[in-house]
Amino acid sequence: MNVRIVAADALAAPDLARWSELQRAKALYRSPFFRPEFALAVARVRDVRVAVVEDAGSVAGFFAFEAGRLGHGRPAGRPFSDYHGPVLDDDAAIDARALVRASGLATWSFDHLPAGIASFAPHVWDQGASPLLDLAEGFDLQAAGGRAPSDVRGAQRKARKLAREIGPLRFVAQSDDPALLAQTIAWKRQQYAATGVTDVLADAGGRELLGHVHAARAIEFAGVLSVLYAGDEVAALHLGLRADGVLHSWFPAYNSDLHRYSPGLVLLLELAAAAPELGIRELDFGKGEARYKQALATGTVPLHEGCVGARPLSAVPIRLGASARRAVRAAGVHRAARRALRR
């Protein structure tokens, strides 16, 4: 295995074409976050490097990362990257520890690595899942209601009520309006403040990244900003990333003045219903246990969390820190603290 390190925005056209070829060849990498365009968008606001892996004389993979203090690496775009990891040829013989070492890193931490990348399995310490809605055969609202009647049928009733009391509903699958993107960001930040969740959009670079993704319009990779109107009022917004037929739910937001109508869920139902016309085969909700994700999901993508050390003991301090954080979460301390802050 030979590795050369290149700044993401300096990758040559043949490398980008090969990356695209590898990404599209394997279902494991179907997420838009594995597209080279996402790494390039992040590179416009951060220093992103790419390890180009050569095996048996040909390019066998790409590994995008950011290097932090003391050589501790993280995925490109974290915490905005809902999937990450190397994009590799099936026939490549890659050792995870050797890859991290060749990238000039002491460690590389991950929390959204798809299960199935065998060389990283020894470095996994926790698991999760990303719920998804299979839309290959279209969206059957009755079947969805059968899985979660209180959620889906409740959302249908609220949609009718929203139309009666506020105005007729109108769904726009994709909007280019930058003012609506700004509204999405503002509503999302209000939600973070209200719930005590870390505001990842407080950073100007993060907000700029959303703008770059929103502006992307290629067939292979695009930002998709969907809008639900009630009369002339914007009820909900949803910024997603699309690669071929997969749409990843990235930043959903809604008008808090209309929260009693569940406009965010109503928008997702509209988006799912429009999927055949939009060429969407799968809607990935992203890692998490939010109730609406569980209500609509027809399956999940297993995800891994862990850390690869360049040396056998390099990742031990990071693992101990992660174990302590999991213990705090399990004890409910973080939830109690957020409730106290809201009060």
Plain-language structure description:
This protein is of the alpha+beta class and 343 residues long. It has 2 domains: 2-130 and 302-342, Aminopeptidase (3-Layer(aba) Sandwich); 137-280, 3-Layer(aba) Sandwich (Aminopeptidase). The protein is built from 12 helices and 13 strands. Strands 1, 2, 3, 4, 5, 6, 7, 8, 9, 10, 11, 12 and 13 form a 13-stranded mixed β-sheet that branches. A hairpin with a 2-residue loop joins strand 10 and strand 11. The longest helix is centred in the middle third of the chain and has 18 residues, at 178-195. It is globular and about 65 Å long.
Descriptive keywords:
13-stranded mixed sheet, 343 residues, alpha+beta, Aminopeptidase
Summarize the structure.
This protein is 38% helix and 28% strand.
Unreliable spans: none
Query: How would you characterize the largest beta sheet?
Result: 13 strands, mixed
CATH topology of the largest domain: Aminopeptidase
- The CATH architecture classification of the largest domain is 3-Layer(aba) Sandwich
Oligomer classification:
single chain
Q: Treating each run of at least 4 consecutive H or I residues as one helix, how many helices?
A: 12
Which structural category fits the helices and strands? alpha+beta
Shape, principal axes of CA atoms = globular
How would you spell out the order of helices and strands?
A: EHHEEEEHEEHHEHHEEEHHEHEHH
Q: What is the number of beta strands?
A: 13
Give the C-level CATH assignment of the largest domain.
Answer: Alpha Beta
Q: How many domains is the backbone divided into?
A: 2
- If you compute it from the alpha carbons, what radius of gyration comes out, rounded to the nearest whole angstrom? 21 Å
